[in-house]
Structure to design on (1487 residues):
């Protein structure tokens, strides 16, 4: 099947602008700028049903239409701070199919009448940043960016802004703070960025993959696009598969077309080393862990934004981390816990103190020094964080903890009883 | 403290943004590339250029993990040890690296050649384990043998 | 106005009100740590989480009703922070539910996981929001193992004044926000992140701000403590006395915290019209002089060439008998010098003694380089209207800050003007001969040539007239001599004035338009402008003219504010401690001698046979020749006192009651906090005792039959300072009714802390400020506002030409440094590092011409004096001027505007 986003898998040199153009590249932008009014572009994206691919799944067109009328300048910021452990889809787009993303940014900028757009790319992606700089320079040379674009009065420039190592900057208001040269600490919402965003101006923030979908909608039509995927989750989706599978990687498939079983056993070639599947984190480190043994039906649910909800989990950014039966779940929770402790920005109390506390408790239980009471305390501390933090990071940090205590409690108890980790004995 | 080139580059960066303050992160990247780390004087120089206080620039330079406020070795390895890499053996490799460099993560080898840092997910989980050398070179599908080779090369360059 | 229901109590509040503030109005306390009413809300600590609901609306937009017919409420799925959520109409808030209690318990438990729990040795204990809220809402027991605690540095000096304990810090950012938002000195910040997030300062010197002490008050834990107060008392043992800061002319309201008969600490006391809840570090820390070991404790009388301890009777009798004897020959041979640090009561009685008992007008408070009286007549007539609040000027007010440097001289006024400009949009025009810190808040910052101030002002006036922007109605009905004034102004075109004062004509025109077209216009002039007025009378006349032609006087936010150097410069003028000014800013018929005239020159015979010197130290300025009989009344054995025949020990402001009148003409009451040091007495008492002794003999000396009322000893019987003020309130029209009772109205008294008083009255936090703006003290009304039909005369003076650049020597500009080499500062050890080494600032052009590099040692000559200083070449002074801060090591009594020569050493 033809790839719609990961087109580099079909056309290996599509990162070159002339190749991209030869395959229809920038025709969508041309059509938008020359033939469509900005609001028509937004309407098309609304009709397409395109939902944000960063994890929350908010309808992109609706987001664009939140900007207050008549307030300028406005900014578009592409969120390329792809930092969720197990996520590496945006990187592939930026390194290997950058023009589709740039074109998506240009169309989105036109739709919201923004003349200066930014890409906030995480500092650990130097190569991707270079690829983008090159792609932007090529697009400028071809007249897709700059002044008087394609003979119209529309002007746009795109600036690549590199982060420097902070997961929290994936949160949109922390990202804005960081863009403004401050510590990447989230802002209180409301006001939302659509109203008070970058430099206090109306701002749209979209994920890289989201924006890469936009040219498809304009080029082939919102109705065509809306037919891909399911009624509520339209379009193609990239699934990042990692962990104990034979063929980790990015797999593109329409929403609702594949299940976890398809992804892991068919596309991913099954569990490595002939071991058995034990657990899945479907949305990176901030997932509710899935225990397929508890309810095998979870493996056959066709994946979209909502389909994992009945199983106590969520798809998020579709960063599927697979773990075999030699993996200790206490250790898994400890790893994610340390990650969130390290990445907590420190601004709000429950996250700053709670992630620290959970990490200490998991250290203790994992090392064999814990008690049965510690297991309940751990779940209790997690619930004490939940719902009280300034941004979602606090809630994220609790997901693998509470879900693993619930789904794999006997493993926690075994650590206490055996005074250590069975997997590392 | 800063070279004239660095100063004019920072001024160019400032002009790229609607608010010059936004240039503070790229300026820190730039200066760190030039000096290897970010001494107090450099923080002061950047602060003066972008119109912030030294304390504010220091805040940025210490919040983000890629900036170094203390001298680093000639090379820096940011070694990913997050869950997806750990599922593919990064913990053992990190131990190996620590042993080989004679220092725990977060420190610099005694010969000053290599600073070893634990990185948070580097976004290369499909080719785990991965690491980032000197902030620019990505290495993936790491094995103990490959690590040894890279360390040897870094020590000699 | 939206109506909101909080715990079933309904309240209407203005648009934009936060839930936390609305709750206070119905008596519901929502606990907070990071929230502070003076700072931008950030929602960080999460202590204020509450349940919030809004009316449920159907698809048609109509509010749905519940079974009881009341609007149904759609509750938000998560708890919301009351400190960031703005109320909306129909909003319902619950703070008394189990869910909210759980959240508060959780936040307190989280905060305490890494807290050292060292309340027994923490300065904050007893007035600590964390302690109080833990008692009120915390779990009572920790589930966090002590061995897992996050450890961090315990004693981190943030400069000389503040100590940081990083383990106690709860990362609420109040201190950082105070520095960024209120003080605008961005010297505190966070470093690192997560659990490691910590407060740092990288400024040089560390925590480089004149307002750092305020962060101690607003820190909700014991993270920031005073290095002065640290570990010296438990706060519940400290007794608070309402007082007024005795340093600069702002008159910040303070509480003196006393224990063991010494000041343990000073904290600001709220006064919305003066200092809100802030004070500067000098006001907070420079109090050690009150109990300095070298305070005078007994009267001293010169015997056999030495000053020997004496009894009060002995000393007072001697003073009275010598004054009597000299007066017998010539009352005008007795002169009085009283510093403008003394209280109104002291100054009033001092002049009363001279004018009514001794019969001399040789009185002055302008010792050294003080020029406070220049322009004082204008303040009497055009003084800013009562109700002017310098911290709340809005976009309808234009304020010209002229020849002033409030950052160094009246720091809290800098804070307030900054607030007016940044928060309320006031239009500041800052004009001076150099760039001061205030300039950054100005819409226009204008730098004129020192000596050409009159041209700058005439340029403004001319620009207004050129564009016909004057207030013609006002001029027609209230102003006399306009036409003659305008004719005299004829030759002074904007271009010509601009050329001479070195401000571009278009800038003058722009400023003039703003002044004339603004609904309200204030002029604040400072010390440098006072010198200019002294050197050129045209400056004062032009200032008045600027107000008159625009009609900007006689009401709040219009008129003149003089920014004086000392805490009671206004009082010294009000009470006539001047050779030509009487009580209540009247004119005296027969002008006496000024301080300068009384003191004479070193090569002259002193013109006074006797001098009574109170609260000032003329000998410190050099060139002092001792008169035949010298009486000095002071806290310390000053240089003048060393020469005296009689030394009388006075009480500091902390030992006695009194009033000071601040630079905005606000009389304010201060109360005794300490027991007297030794036998020291209040100044007013000493003066009265001398008067009584003089009067008792004089009654018989007065020729003729009439004995004036003030010559009866019983009229000098004042039991208290309050009794003196009663007399003032009854007889001085400016101060009519300003008794202590009146001045005590609305004075915010300290509330009890933990361990004191009734627990139900104890606030969880003391440095929050009140819900309603409170202000106390009384401002006297200027002529323009008390007499609505008064006529004013425009008076023309030809401006004097400043020296041109080619005839230069350079002009000396004298600055002040907040921390200087003065006696009071010198007794407080911990601020010594903030006292700058003496220096001279030179413009880079001049420096280049003279071959002087930054940091070079130079010799500065002026007025027969030569001093050696380090040169600074850093762009704060314009060409042709040099700037030297006064009263640092070797730089006392510098003559502003003198011609100086500079050469390399």
């Amino acid at each position: 099947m033809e790839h719609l986003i990961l087109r580099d898998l079909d056309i290996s040199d599509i990162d070159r602008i002339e190749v991209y153009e030869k395959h229809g590249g920038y025709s969508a932008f041309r059509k938008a700028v020359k033939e469509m009014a900005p609001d028509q572009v937004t309407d098309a994206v609304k009709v397409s049903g395109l939902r944000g691919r960063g994890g929350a799944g908010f309808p992109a067109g609706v987001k664009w239409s939140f900007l207050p009328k008549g307030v300028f300048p406005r900014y578009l910021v592409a969120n390329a701070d792809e930092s969720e452990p197990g996520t590496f889809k945006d990187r592939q787009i930026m390194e290997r199919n950058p023009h589709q993303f740039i074109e998506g940014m240009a169309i989105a900028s036109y739709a919201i009448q923004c003349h200066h757009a930014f890409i906030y790319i995480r500092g650990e992606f130097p190569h991707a940043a270079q690829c983008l700089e090159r792609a932007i320079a090529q697009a400028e040379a071809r007249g897709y960016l700059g002044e008087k674009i394609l003979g119209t009065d529309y002007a746009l420039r795109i600036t690549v802004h590199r982060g420097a190592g902070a997961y929290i900057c994936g949160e949109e208001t922390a990202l804005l703070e960081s863009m403004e040269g401050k510590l990447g600490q989230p802002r209180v919402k409301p006001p939302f960025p659509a109203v008070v965003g970058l430099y206090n101006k109306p701002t749209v923030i979209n994920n890289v993959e989201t924006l890469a979908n936009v040219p498809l909608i304009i080029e082939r039509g919102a109705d065509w696009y809306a037919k891909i995927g399911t009624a509520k989750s339209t379009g193609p989706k990239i699934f990042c598969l990692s962990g104990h599978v034979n063929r980790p990687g990015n797999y593109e498939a329409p929403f609702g077309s594949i299940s976890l079983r398809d992804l892991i056993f068919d596309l991913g070639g099954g569990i490595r080393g002939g071991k058995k599947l034990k657990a899945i984190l479907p949305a990176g480190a901030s997932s509710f862990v899935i225990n397929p043994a508890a309810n095998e039906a979870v493996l056959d649910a066709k994946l979209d934004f909502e389909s994992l909800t009945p199983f106590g989990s969520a798809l998020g950014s579709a960063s599927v981390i697979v773990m075999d039966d030699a993996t200790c779940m206490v250790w898994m929770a400890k790893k994610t816990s340390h990650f969130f402790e390290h990445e907590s920005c420190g601004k709000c109390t429950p996250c700053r103190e709670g992630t620290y506390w959970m990490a200490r408790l998991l250290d203790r239980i994992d090392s064999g020094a814990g008690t049965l009471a510690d297991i309940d305390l751990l779940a209790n501390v997690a619930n004490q964080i939940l719902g009280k933090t300034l941004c979602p990071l606090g809630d994220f940090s609790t997901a693998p903890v509470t879900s693993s205590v619930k789904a794999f409690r006997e493993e926690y108890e075994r650590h206490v009883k055996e005074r250590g980790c069975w997997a590392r004995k | 403290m800063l070279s004239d080139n660095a100063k004019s580059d920072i001024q160019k960066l400032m002009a790229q943004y609607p608010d010059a303050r936004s240039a503070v992160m790229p300026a820190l990247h730039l200066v760190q590339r030039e000096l290897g780390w970010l001494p107090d004087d450099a923080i002061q120089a950047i602060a003066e250029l972008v119109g912030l206080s030294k304390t504010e620039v220091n805040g940025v330079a210490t919040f983000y993990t890629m900036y170094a406020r203390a001298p680093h070795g000639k090379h820096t390895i940011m070694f990913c040890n997050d869950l997806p890499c750990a599922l593919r053996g990064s913990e053992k490799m990190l131990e190996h690296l620590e042993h080989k460099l004679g220092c725990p993560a977060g420190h610099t080898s005694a010969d000053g050649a290599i600073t070893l840092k634990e990185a948070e997910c580097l976004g290369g989980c499909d080719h785990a384990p991965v690491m980032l050398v000197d902030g620019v070179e990505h290495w993936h599908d790491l094995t103990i043998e490959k690590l040894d080779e890279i360390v040897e090369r870094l020590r000699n360059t | 106005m939206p109506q909101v229901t909080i715990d079933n109590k309904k309240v209407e509040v203005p648009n934009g009100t936060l839930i936390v503030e609305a709750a206070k109005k119905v008596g519901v306390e929502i606990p907070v740590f990071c929230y502070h009413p003076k700072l931008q809300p950030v929602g960080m600590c999460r202590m204020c989480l509450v349940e919030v609901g809004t009316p449920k609306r159907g698809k048609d937009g109509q509010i749905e009703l519940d079974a009881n017919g009341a609007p149904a409420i759609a509750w938000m799925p998560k708890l919301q922070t009351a400190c960031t959520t703005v109320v909306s109409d129909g909003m319902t808030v619950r703070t008394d539910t189990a869910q909210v209690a759980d959240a508060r318990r959780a936040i307190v438990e989280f905060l305490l996981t890494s807290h050292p729990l060292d309340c027994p040795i923490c300065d904050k204990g007893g007035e600590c929001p964390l302690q109080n809220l833990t008692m009120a809402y915390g779990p009572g027991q920790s589930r966090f193992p002590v061995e897992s605690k996050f450890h961090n540095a315990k004693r981190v000096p943030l400069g000389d004044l503040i100590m940081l304990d990083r383990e106690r810090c709860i990362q609420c950012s109040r201190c950082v926000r105070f520095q960024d938002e209120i003080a605008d000195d961005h010297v505190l910040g966070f470093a690192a992140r997560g659990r490691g997030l910590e407060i740092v300062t990288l400024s040089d010197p560390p925590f480089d701000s004149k307002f750092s002490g305020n962060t101690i008050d607003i820190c909700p834990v014991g993270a920031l403590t005073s290095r002065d107060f640290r570990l010296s008392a438990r706060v519940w043992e400290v007794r608070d006395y309402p007082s007024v800061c005795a340093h600069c002319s702002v008159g910040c309201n303070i509480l003196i915290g006393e224990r063991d008969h010494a000041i343990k600490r000073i904290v600001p006391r709220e006064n919305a019209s003066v200092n809100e809840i802030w004070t500067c570090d000098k006001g907070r820390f420079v109090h050690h002089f009150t109990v300095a070991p070298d305070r005078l404790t007994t009267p001293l009388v010169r015997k056999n060439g030495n000053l020997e301890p004496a009894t009060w009777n002995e000393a007072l009798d001697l003073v009275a008998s010598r004054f009597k004897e000299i007066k017998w020959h010539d009352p005008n041979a007795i002169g009085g010098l009283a510093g403008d640090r003394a209280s109104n009561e002291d100054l009033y009685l001092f002049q009363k003694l001279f004018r009514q008992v001794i019969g001399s007008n040789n009185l002055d408070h302008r010792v050294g380089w003080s020029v406070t009286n220049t322009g004082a007549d204008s303040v009497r007539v055009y003084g800013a209207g009562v109700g002017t609040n310098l911290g709340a000027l809005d976009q309808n007010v234009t304020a010209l800050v002229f020849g002033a440097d409030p950052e160094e001289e009246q720091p809290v006024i800098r804070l307030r003007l900054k607030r007016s400009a940044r928060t309320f949009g006031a239009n500041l025009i800052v004009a001076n001969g150099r760039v001061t810190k205030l300039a950054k808040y100005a819409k226009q910052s204008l730098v004129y040539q020192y000596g050409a101030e009159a041209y700058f002002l005439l340029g403004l006036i001319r620009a207004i007239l050129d564009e016909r922007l004057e207030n013609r109605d006002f001029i027609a009905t209230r102003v006399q001599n306009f036409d003659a004034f305008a004719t005299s102004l004829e030759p002074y075109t904007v271009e010509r004035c601009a050329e001479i004062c070195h401000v571009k004509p278009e800038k003058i025109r722009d400023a003039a338009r703003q002044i004339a077209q603004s609904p309200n216009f204030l002029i604040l002039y400072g010390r440098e402008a006072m010198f200019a007025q002294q050197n050129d009378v045209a400056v004062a006349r032009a200032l008045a003219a600027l107000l008159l032609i625009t009609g900007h006087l006689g009401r709040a936010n219009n008129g003149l504010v003089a920014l004086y150097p000392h805490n009671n410069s206004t009082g010294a003028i009000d009470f006539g401690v001047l050779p030509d000014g009487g009580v209540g800013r009247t004119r005296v018929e027969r002008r006496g001698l000024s301080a300068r005239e009384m003191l004479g020159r070193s090569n002259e015979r002193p013109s006074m046979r006797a001098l009574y010197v109170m609260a000032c130290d003329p000998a410190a300025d050099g060139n002092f020749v001792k008169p035949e009989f010298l009486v000095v009344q002071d806290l310390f054995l000053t240089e003048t006192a060393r020469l005296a025949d009689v030394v009388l020990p006075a009480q500091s402001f902390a030992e006695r009651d009194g009033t000071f009148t601040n630079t905005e003409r606000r009389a304010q009451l201060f109360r005794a906090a300490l027991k007297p040091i030794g036998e020291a007495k209040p100044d007013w008492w000493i003066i009265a005792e001398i008067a009584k002794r003089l009067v008792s003999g004089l009654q018989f000396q007065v020729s003729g039959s009439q004995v004036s009322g003030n010559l009866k000893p019983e009229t000098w019987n004042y039991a208290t300072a309050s009794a003196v003020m009663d007399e003032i309130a009854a007889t001085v029209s400016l101060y009519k009714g300003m008794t202590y009772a009146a001045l005590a109205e609305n004075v915010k008294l300290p509330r009890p802390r933990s361990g004191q008083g009734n627990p139900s009255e104890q606030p969880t936090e003391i440095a929050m400020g009140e819900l309603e703006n409170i202000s106390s003290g009384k401002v006297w009304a200027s002529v323009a506002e008390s007499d609505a039909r008064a006529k004013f005369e425009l008076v023309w003076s030809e401006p004097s030409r400043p020296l041109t650049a080619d005839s230069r020597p350079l002009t000396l500009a004298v600055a002040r440094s907040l921390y200087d080499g003065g006696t009071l500062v010198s007794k407080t050890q911990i601020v010594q590092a903030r006292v700058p080494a003496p220096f001279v600032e030179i413009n880079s052009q001049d420096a280049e011409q003279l071959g002087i590099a930054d940091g070079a040692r130079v010799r500065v000559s002026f007025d027969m004096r030569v001093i050696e200083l380090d040169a600074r070449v850093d762009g704060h002074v314009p060409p042709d001027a040099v700037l030297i801060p006064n009263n640092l090591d070797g730089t006392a009594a510098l003559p502003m505007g003198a011609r100086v020569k500079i050469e390399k050493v």
Notes: Chain A has a mean pLDDT of 97.
